[in-house]
Design goal:
Keywords: Signal. The chain is of the alpha+beta class. The chain contains six helices and six strands. The radius of gyration is 16 Å and the shape is globular.
Amino acid sequence: MRPALLLISNLLPLLFLSVPASAGPQAAQRWFNERGYVEPAGGRIIACHGYGCTRRLALSIDGGLLSRARGILRAAQGSPAAERRALAEVIGSYTAYLSVSLGGKPDVPGSPAQMSGVHGQMDCLDETANTTSLLLVLQERGLLTHHVVEHPVSRGFFLDGRYPHFTAVIAEKRTGEGWAVDPWKKPPGRRPEILPLDQWRQAS
């Protein structure tokens, strides 16, 4: 199958599952179950790569990565905005760790079709799963003061002229405002986009 068609076949069936039926403390975990992915357990995640989570690798984020994340987030408890900035720093470090752990060529931002199936390369579904896994670990460890992890969402469905794209989501505890946490356009080690969910939904 041609790479572009393979990507479409991976994404299209999932569009109908992109909006959660309800929010709640288990909403993000349900997303993993809906797709047959493996949610994190303790400090262990099953990292997705190869596009559409066709390749998987068990990794531990205990130790240095989690210790650094704890320090960064505890220093940013003053406000939701400060916590989001801290999360961007933590996730940048995490994507660098993923890239080294997976091996192969560093992930190419934007998931070009010709990289489909290549070891270590990640499309938006892989990025969403991996980012949500980290966020759930941070939440379970009590490191998120101002936000909760929500069910990932998507935008675009071909008929509106936009390619389907998924993102991890957090919401402010006080206001309920949703924020997209999206490293898809960034190379490993760079801070992800964290922007209001409504703004993210309008982008192409």
